[in-house]
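I had to read the description of the data format several times before I understood it. For illustration, here is how one protein appears when written out as sequence plus structure tokens:
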Amino acid sequence: QVQLVESGGGFVQPGGSLRLSCVVSRSIFNFNTVGWYRQAPGKERELVAIFARSGYINYVDSVKGRFTITRDNVKNTVYLQMNSLKSEDTAVYYCNADSRRDGGMEYWGKGTLVTVSS
């Protein structure tokens, strides 16, 4: 069973920064994509940033220029550096690893809460 463990969430004022980490219990090259999603209160879960095995990266428009996704292939860890945080970034952030294109499964972490407020 694959496990994804997020950390790094917390409370921050608008304009501040946080870095989220997601440790994957298996080599991240086993997955077509690894990435971050978020779900704000009363809203559907949305893609924030995704890193494909090929190296392709994509971000939701609302975070472009502020968030950066990176990965450490040795540590099997995916990071999300979040700068210039806004109140609308408040959400539970979930790590995701997806190998369905290879006939595998999709995995989720339990989430880490990010609260942006003054």
